[in-house]
UniProtKB/TrEMBL annotation:
Source organism: Tahibacter aquaticus
UniProt keyword terms in alphabetical order: Signal
Domain of life: Bacteria
Protein name in UniProt: Uncharacterized protein
Signal peptide region: 1-22
Length: 169
C-alpha cells in the first residue's frame, strides 16, 4: 500500500531546561485537520514526555456517550527525542461538551520499532465503544508491519478507557 506524503502541522514546545524548539505533528492524510483541543493536548503531551515529534495515525469520530454529538478518538505515537525507531503509542478520547471537544481519557497502546507485542487500531465509534482491530506480529514480520489482525473493541466507562478486547471467534 502506498500512502501519500503526510500532512505536517508545526507546533512549538518547550523541552526540559527551557529550550524552545519546533516540534512537528505529522499525520496520515486520511486524518484530516486536527481540532484545536486535540492539537493543544498533543503539544502538552509531547512536552511532558520530551518527545521529538508526534505522529497521528488515526482519528475516528462518533458518539461515545449517547448525546448525539461527534466525539473524537485519536491514535498517536511519540517519537523519541534520543533518536532511533522506538516510539510509544497512545490513544486519547475527546468528548463534546458545550459544543467543544474536551479531553476525557487516554490509554497506552504499546510501542513500535521492536516487532513485538500488539496495538489497537480504531475504525469507528459505535454503541459506546471504539471498534477496530488488534494488530500483532507474526514471527517473520518486520518492525514496520504487523501482519496479524483481529477484530476488537475498547470500552469507555467511568471516565476510563478499557483495554482492547479481542472479538470472540
Amino acid at each position: 500500500m502506498i500512502l501519500s506524503p503526510p500532512a505536517i502541522l508545526a507546533l512549538s514546545l518547550v523541552l526540559p531546561g527551557g529550550a524552545a524548539t519546533a516540534a512537528e505533528i505529522s499525520s496520515d492524510d486520511s486524518v484530516g485537520t486536527l481540532d484545536a483541543p486535540i492539537r493543544a493536548y498533543l503539544d502538552r503531551k509531547a512536552a511532558a514526555e520530551s518527545a521529538a515529534g508526534i505522529y497521528v495515525s488515526k482519528l475516528v469520530r462518533g458518539d461515545i456517550d449517547g448525546n448525539g454529538k461527534a466525539d473524537a478518538y485519536v491514535s498517536y505515537s511519540l517519537e523519541s527525542a534520543s533518536g532511533g525507531n522506538f516510539t510509544l503509542l497512545y490513544e486519547a478520547l475527546f468528548v463534546v461538551e458545550k459544543d467543544q471537544l474536551v479531553f476525557k481519557a487516554e490509554r497506552d497502546n504499546g510501542s513500535s520499532g521492536t516487532a513485538q507485542g500488539e496495538s489497537f487500531s480504531p475504525k469507528r465509534i459505535e454503541a459506546g465503544r471504539i471498534l477496530g482491530e488488534i494488530l500483532a506480529y507474526a514471527p517473520d514480520d518486520g518492525a514496520c508491519c504487523p501482519s496479524i489482525k483481529r477484530a476488537a473493541s475498547v470500552s469507555y466507562a467511568g471516565g476510563k478507557l478499557g483495554a482492547a478486547v479481542k472479538k470472540a471467534d
